[in-house]
Every structure is written in C-alpha cells, then in structure tokens.
Amino acid sequence: MTGGFRKKIRQKNAENSGFGTNASGRFINKDGLPNVQRRGVNVFNRLSWYHTMLNLSSFRFISYLVIAYILINLLFAMIYYMIGVEHLTGIDKSDPLNEFIDVFFFSSQTFTTVGYGRIAPVGFLASLVATFEAFLGLLTFAIATGLFYGRFSRPRAYLRFSDIAVIAPFQDSSALMFRLAPYKNNALTDADVILSAAIEVIENGVAKSNFYRLDTQMSKINTLALNWTVVHKIDENSPFYGFSEEDFKNTDIELIVQVRAFDEVFSNTVVQRSSYTTGEIVYGAKFVPMYYPSKENSTTVLDLDKINEYKNEEIPDFVRNNE
C-alpha cells in the first residue's frame, strides 16, 4: 500500500492479523487467495499442483487437459514417425500428411487403450513405445479422474460478493456495508463473518499498515438463503470514526472479509474470503433491494444481477458533524 493517513485512530490495532505491517499491495485478492509471491524455493516445491488444478476455473481446467492430451499424442506420433511408419501396419502411405495423421490417431488410440486394431505396431522398438504409452495413458487418466472427482466433490461456499462496499447513513450515524449472496442451490447454515480493516498510517515518518477487527451489527445468521448485507456501524468504537469523505478517498484501506458456514449436504464447514480496497468503497451510497416476491406471490426471487446496484444517499449533516 502507498500513501498514508495521519489522523489519530483511537481503536487499538489487532496484533494477530497474520499479515506483516509493511506488506505491499492488497493483502487478499478478490478471489480470496493471499496476494503473496513466494521465493527461495523452486517452482516444483513452491506450488501444490493438486491445489492449483482444483482452484482453476472450469474452462482453464478443461483447456489444460485437452492441450496436454494433444501435446502428448503429438510427441508420441513424432516418435512413431521417427521409428518409421513401416513398423506400423495399416498406415495410409499415399502421402506424408496422411501417414502422420494415421500415426497421430494410432497414438491417441494407444494412449486411451482403445486399440481399434486397424493399425498395430510391428517390431520390438515400436511395440516398446506403444507399451510405454499405454502405461502412461492409464496413469494419466487415473490422475485426471482423481482431479475431476476432487473438483466435483470439494465443499465450497458458492458465495458472490458485491464488487463494492458503501458508506451509507445508518441509524444516528453512518455505516460501512457490503453484501453477499449464495448463487447455487446449496443449503448454508450457521454462517458467520469476520471483518477486518488494514489502514495505512504514518508513524515516525514511516508508512505502515495497522489492522483492526471491525464489529458488525450481525456477525452470525442461522440460514444464508437470501443476500446478507454486512453492516459495520461507524461510531466511537470504529477505527473509521471521524473519517470524512476525503479521508476515505485519500487513505489506503483494505477490508478483509472471511465468511464461514456449514454446508448440510457435504456436512462440512466451508470458507470463502474477499476484500475491498479504497477504490472499491463508495461514499454516500446505499444498496438497492435485490430480492422481491414473484408475480404469483408464491416465492421469493433473489436477483443476483442486482448485487452491485446502489443509489446515491446523502450523508446527513449531523453525521458529517460527528465525523
């Protein structure tokens, strides 16, 4: 983080944040993962390939599998072609392109252990390569099957956070708000939220980040079926007490959010994180409702397209005076 804030904050900063005071950039990315680069170890020890593959988006995961499948078969096709197509029976030898195409599809049939039988290896070397490729194919598909199952069976919260947080009038003061909502048909109960703030301050001419635990009006709900607007009231117990609109714009702030809930289907606790930085906090705004009754008045409609919608809401003068 850059910049700094010189105003005295009365709330004592938290010491057990898990982040250093001199870290750079945002602490938590929007996807909930820490914004940390690890060095001093090679890439094979730095990354857990299992976790990496599980955390990939579905499109990237499938794309990587397809690309790996094509590259492996191209590699073995070139090996067979270098050995000589005369060591493979049933090859169309009308021209080199047809030869390579037949060799490529023979490789894919061997790799998947399908083996239609039109093309077969002849001789020790071609048979040895085909045997190794079939063995490699069995191992590869076993790993791919495990990854598919891990992605399918992995407990996840499936929550969508608003892209912004707002500063809105609230009771006799103002409040910092953001909201979240489940976007799948999973049943989440006993949901609780932990909200922290990293605020950059200037101490002895040195910029550092102090961390504060933010109280919320409702830190736990029994069932997370609709959207949940998390509210932190800005009063004398808040580190933002006395902040003006300019203070919110000129101070490096990051709100770190962690939501934990119990998934009844998986019978397991699920966790999801997100964060908001200064540029993602809108002063003088209020979220508009995102759920309403259906036309038949028989059910409730949760419109996830409205999760980021807000309207401008003037902060009353008495609140500004308190700030």
Number of strands: 16
Q: What is the CA-CA span between the terminal residues?
A: 24 Å
**Which structural class matches the secondary elements?**
alpha+beta
Q: Sheet bearing the most strands, described?
A: 5 strands, mixed
Radius of gyration: 28 Å
Q: What is the average per-residue confidence, as pLDDT, rounded to a whole number?
A: 87
Please work out how many helical segments DSSP would assign: 7
3D shape: elongated
Helical percent range?
25-40%
Q: Would you identify the regions where 5 or more consecutive residues have pLDDT less than 50?
A: 1-6
Beta fraction: 25-35%
Query: SSE string, helix = H, strand = E?
Result: HHHEHEHEEEEEEEHEEEEEEEH
Fold topology:
Elements: H1 43-46, H2 49-55, H3 58-83, E1 88-89, H4 96-111, E2 120-121, H5 124-153, E3 159-161, E4 165-170, E5 173-182, E6 188-203, E7 206-214, E8 220-224, E9 228-234, H6 245-250, E10 253-263, E11 268-277, E12 281-283, E13 285-287, E14 291-293, E15 300-302, E16 310-312, H7 317-322
Parallel strand pairs: 4-12
Antiparallel strand pairs: 1-2, 3-5, 4-5, 5-9, 6-7, 6-8, 6-10, 10-11, 13-16, 14-15
Report on this model:
It contains seven helices and 16 strands. With 323 residues, the chain is an alpha+beta fold. The two termini are 24 Å apart. The N terminus is likely disordered.
Task: Please summarize what this structure is.
The chain is α+β, with helices and mostly antiparallel strands and 323 residues long.
